[in-house]
Amino acid sequence: MDKLKSFLIKRLILILIIVVTIELILNAIVNFAFFPLIQMLMGVSGSSALSITNIPYLIWGILTGNNAFIFGSFRTSAALFLILLSIFLLALPVIIGILTYATIVTKQVEILEKERDQERKDFEAQRNLMLSDFAHDLRTPIMTIGGYATAINDGMVKDDAQKKEYLTAIASKSKRMTELITLLFEYVRVGSAGFTLDRKKIDLHAFLTEIIANSYTDLEDAGMEVDINIPEDTFYISADELHLKRVIENLIINIIRHNPSGIKVGFEITKLAGVEFLAVADSGDAITKSEEELFEPFVKGEDSRSQTKGSGLGLSVAKQVMDMHGYEIHLIQPYREYTKAFILKFVDN
């Protein structure tokens, strides 16, 4: 709507400038060409110059016969014709300007309606795809759980070690399903109209240090070298601690899930006046998707589902949370000595 208002205001100003310019030109033509001729036809001396303002009185005088000047019917008709032509020429730019602006408004509204219809169709298509992908991601663990549970229940698994293996797989798949449902709930909740952030003042450096420390063992267990460059001083921001924590944790989880062991992982802060940038970087595989595609729901870094373990919702939720805070998140490839990095921009409180 703001885009439409801006467009219409710009067009209105442009049309007004054009109309005023043409009016000035036509006014000069009428004053220096038509009015002297009208004066000659009416026998008026140059000192009694006609003007736009006294035309109505002149016409009234001609029509009622009260005009002070007596002249023939031909001269009267010619003078009246020139007066009416002058009025028409002076009114024509205004009429054309109004019609032109009305046409622009009509066309722009039609374009806006078409764009809204297309956005609605795209939204419905995206929603259907999201539900289809979510059902696909849930089907595999459900089938695994069902198969293992049936085998145990029917007594097909005799060996205790194998039974324990099946139960471990059931627990793992159940956990995965819980993660998927939690992510979907978070995605819908964050995107809902009634959702608000529970913001408070937090020290970004201490906040990040705690999250990275809690994930340090998982990164080491995945065979990754970790480089941390977080300042020890304070930098306060206004943020929802719970949701911002999930953003950082999701980026770390993605590094572990979608990269081979032996890579280098970096967490570093870059400072500017009143602004800090956190880089969550790694030297693993590059992401083939564009940044715009990557932050869409159920979009993953690789095209094949079999190559990834994520739901494709985490980055979409992260983008939503950062946007709601008024912060930014971007993908940079490459980044310094790393293959890629997610750059998070924070503004001080």
UniProtKB/TrEMBL annotation:
<feature type="transmembrane region" description="Helical">
    <location>
        <begin position="81"/>
        <end position="104"/>
    </location>
</feature>
<dbReference type="InterPro" id="IPR036097">
    <property type="entry name" value="HisK_dim/P_sf"/>
</dbReference>
<keyword id="KW-0472">Membrane</keyword>
<feature type="domain" description="Histidine kinase">
    <location>
        <begin position="133"/>
        <end position="331"/>
    </location>
</feature>
<protein>
    <recommendedName>
        <fullName>histidine kinase</fullName>
        <ecNumber>2.7.13.3</ecNumber>
    </recommendedName>
</protein>
<keyword id="KW-1133">Transmembrane helix</keyword>
<dbReference type="GO" id="GO:0000155">
    <property type="term" value="F:phosphorelay sensor kinase activity"/>
</dbReference>
<feature type="transmembrane region" description="Helical">
    <location>
        <begin position="55"/>
        <end position="74"/>
    </location>
</feature>
<dbReference type="InterPro" id="IPR004358">
    <property type="entry name" value="Sig_transdc_His_kin-like_C"/>
</dbReference>
<keyword id="KW-0808">Transferase</keyword>
<dbReference type="Pfam" id="PF00512">
    <property type="entry name" value="HisKA"/>
</dbReference>
<keyword id="KW-0418">Kinase</keyword>
<keyword id="KW-0597">Phosphoprotein</keyword>
<keyword id="KW-0812">Transmembrane</keyword>
<dbReference type="GO" id="GO:0016036">
    <property type="term" value="P:cellular response to phosphate starvation"/>
</dbReference>
<dbReference type="Pfam" id="PF02518">
    <property type="entry name" value="HATPase_c"/>
</dbReference>
<dbReference type="InterPro" id="IPR036890">
    <property type="entry name" value="HATPase_C_sf"/>
</dbReference>
<dbReference type="InterPro" id="IPR005467">
    <property type="entry name" value="His_kinase_dom"/>
</dbReference>
<dbReference type="GO" id="GO:0004721">
    <property type="term" value="F:phosphoprotein phosphatase activity"/>
</dbReference>
<dbReference type="InterPro" id="IPR050351">
    <property type="entry name" value="BphY/WalK/GraS-like"/>
</dbReference>
<dbReference type="InterPro" id="IPR003661">
    <property type="entry name" value="HisK_dim/P_dom"/>
</dbReference>
<dbReference type="GO" id="GO:0005886">
    <property type="term" value="C:plasma membrane"/>
</dbReference>
<feature type="transmembrane region" description="Helical">
    <location>
        <begin position="12"/>
        <end position="35"/>
    </location>
</feature>
<keyword id="KW-0902">Two-component regulatory system</keyword>
<dbReference type="InterPro" id="IPR003594">
    <property type="entry name" value="HATPase_dom"/>
</dbReference>
